[in-house]
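ok trying again, last paste got cut off:
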Amino acid sequence: MVVAEDTIVLPDDGAVLSAPTLSTILESGAYPESTGFTKTIDYIDFEMHGKPFTQVVMTLRPDTPRLHDGKEILLIAGEGGSDNGNGFLVTYEGKEGMGPWIAKRGITFVAVPRLGRWNFFAPDQTGGWADIPLSNRMPVFDRHQPTYWSPEDYTSHASQGQASPTGSDKFRLPKEGTALYDHMLAATSDVLVEGYRRGVMHSFGALGQSRDHVLLLYWGFSTGGPFLWPVARFIAPDGMLGWGTSSTGIAYFHSRTQTGRYDWPYENSALRVRERGRPDFLFYTEHIDDELREKWWLKALSAPRFKSIEDTMMFYNVAALSEHAGKLWNSNFLPESDRHQGFSAFVRQTIEPCFPVDELRSVAVWEMNGTLDQVIQPDKVDASRAVMEPYCRRYRVARLEGFHHDILHDTITTVGRIWLKVIDEGYFD
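nice, full thing came through this time. structure:
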């Protein structure tokens, strides 16, 4: 008897899964739904660098967990650069996102949005941004903030000489002396990583399981990647699931040096909020028609559609990272407990998440990208691998012919089935 799951044959390292093979996987019916799930949204309040932060944790818990060697499977997900985790629930098409798809197959799916990206003023804990004009969106770090930011708190500018190739044409900067400025100053790279760490720890508590009784997997889609890699310093996963995943800041820089780009470290991105407007959206959707793009754009406006403090770390803008740390050090609200370590250690702490960590030596990496990925092309994947693989227990790359940089429903179904096959075959054991 032919089992649908047998139609999924994992590729050799570096091989391309052909379009006919991918079509077979999509049409196979492999790994059907097996359970319902419960969705919860929790808030974790903490303080760091003298300011309050709220980490959102969105959990999709299966009614009947899928077990691997007797262990529950926990997938921690970091969202893309324009999203806040809601894109894992529903696609631009209005179809089921990766979160529900995974949860209905027995895996606990946890989205841990980066700090500042959840709109706490949205009704019913949706976190959506549709009610705030695109040109007025600034990060909100604390759920106890009484009102949204005023236009007097920031300035707007036309983008010039930006490292990102996606076409973002505007950015905003907080005005010095405002509460927004101080809060963004406190939100360094290590603070974002701390938010992820707390989210992962919360997830173990929600499962009621110890680390030894869970198969722990991380997946950072796009910008989510650079912020999940450094979490391994504190909580190493069993594996990194890849789809359209960006690597660490230093790996990103290495990939650019392969094409002669050495200007990235100098980009003036400190405290910048980069708007992901229509030009940016067009960059990722040139392969679809104008009518469909407009429909998707209206849905996309519920997402944050901005990058705040992510760029400096992701792109290894080390000059901006240093500027950010220096200004924070000289602020009037940084606690003495931070100053106690000294300036050198403080700056190092804010830049450290850009680099791979020794704790990755226990981690197996399964990386996948589409051959038509608009921002993480195969050569960039290979350049990042050259930096990261020496730190990891195991590393494999698979490429999907004709796929773009997206998490649309057909992509989700195909990628999700491959992931389940990878787990079943014991790649992360």
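cool. The chain has one domain: 4-424. The two ends are 28 Å apart (CA to CA).
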